[in-house]
Design brief:
Layout lengths: L3 E3 L2 E5 L5 H7 L3 H4 L8 H11 L11 E7 L5 E13 L3 E10 L8 H15 L2 E9 L3 H9 L3 E12 L2 E10 L7
Parallel strand pairs: 5-6
Antiparallel strand pairs: 1-2, 2-3, 3-4, 4-5, 6-8, 7-8
């Protein structure tokens, strides 16, 4: 796959050389605040190895793209998706996700990167999209809404980080029906 051009950003496939970035994203307290409890390095490495695998529409493992700032050449985060379901009536349904280094929060990079990933995924045959956001992660909800997602469900006490239970906020982006 050739890198995706997303204006001020480029999205490229994750490679072995991206291990330090991936580890940093999965170790940083600010990044993990609404994502998960910290994992052992071995668990992070296993997730990294899974994301290095070739991907095709419907695969359950994550398709992971590194988001690079064009101007500086700096890797600022990751963005991607994985298959959730394939059904004859709905086609491929995938879940999206993204993590960015804190120094790049608030720059609009997540929105730009997610739009590019969605466009690419659509070319692979993905028809519907879903995202799960931990309650309180207002910025992530805004990113999804800017990319055409709508909040469709709230699962109370759906997720635990540390000793705190949070609601899972379920967002979906349905296919656009052609105008008649």
């Amino acid at each position: 796959m050739k890198p995706l051009d997303a204006g001020s950003l480029t999205l490229r496939l994750l490679t072995e050389a991206d291990w330090p970035l991936f580890l940093q994203l999965h170790r940083h307290e600010q990044v993990l605040q609404y994502v998960a409890d910290p994992l052992a390095n071995e668990q992070i490495r296993q997730r990294f190895e899974e994301r290095l695998q070739p991907w095709q529409a419907g695969d359950l493992h994550w398709f992971c793209l590194v988001v690079v700032e064009k101007k500086s050449g700096t890797a600022v985060g990751v963005c991607g998706f994985h298959g959730l379901d394939v059904a004859p009536d709905t086609g491929v349904i995938a879940e999206v996700g993204y993590l960015f280094l804190p120094e790049f929060f608030g720059k609009g990079y997540a929105t730009v990167a997610l739009k590019a990933a969605l466009d690419y995924g659509t070319t692979l045959g993905i028809k519907q999209w879903q995202a799960v956001v931990t309650e309180g992660n207002i910025a992530s909800g805004r990113v999804l809404e800017k990319c055409g997602f709508s909040l469709v469900d709230r699962q109370h006490n759906g997720y635990q980080i540390g000793d705190t239970f949070f609601a899972d906020l379920i967002y979906k982006k349905l296919p656009v029906e052609p105008a008649l």
